Amino acid sequence: MFIRNVGFFIVKSQTMTDENEEQTENRTAENLESVGQMIIGGIEQIGGILTGDPMTRAEGDFNVAVGSEHQETNKNLTAIENEEAERRESKESIHTETKE
């Protein structure tokens, strides 16, 4: 019985690892998108300053702000997802221990 529980736990943790790797890849892509938006916004800001165009500079300010907010949101979601994963793992380990 103990070996079966350990086997189940190992299979379960391998599945969780695959999901975590996929989520990490998605988060990395989202972070790159937000950094890209901030870079484009910075370029627009400089372009607006150099040409004296307040609309271009304002658009650059907007893109930098949106990119920053996107990064902050991703950071908060990652923290929430990590807390939920820890809770699930602790519940599973308690459940496995009670079966033994």
How would you portray this structure in words?
- The longest helix is centred in the N-terminal third of the chain and has 50 residues.
- This protein has a domain of 58 residues.
- The N terminus is likely disordered.
- It has 100 residues and is mainly α.
- Helix 1 runs antiparallel to helix 2.
Summarize this entry quickly.
With 100 residues, the chain is mainly alpha-helical.
Task: Note the beta-strand portion.
Answer: under 5%
Low-confidence blocks of residues: 1-13
Question: What is the count of DSSP helices, taking H or I runs of 4+ residues?
Answer: 2
Please state the structural category: mainly alpha
What is the number of beta strands? Answer: 0
Q: Would you list the SSEs in sequence order as H and E?
A: HH
On the 0 to 100 scale, the average pLDDT is 79
- Coarse morphology: rod-shaped
Distance between the termini: 7 Å
Helix content: over 70%
The major beta sheet can be summarized as:
none
Q: Measured on Cα atoms, how large is the radius of gyration? A: 22 Å
List the helices and strands and how they pair.
Elements: H1 2-51, H2 54-99
Helix pairs in contact: 1-2
Name some characteristics of this structure.
single chain; 96% helix; mainly alpha; disordered N terminus
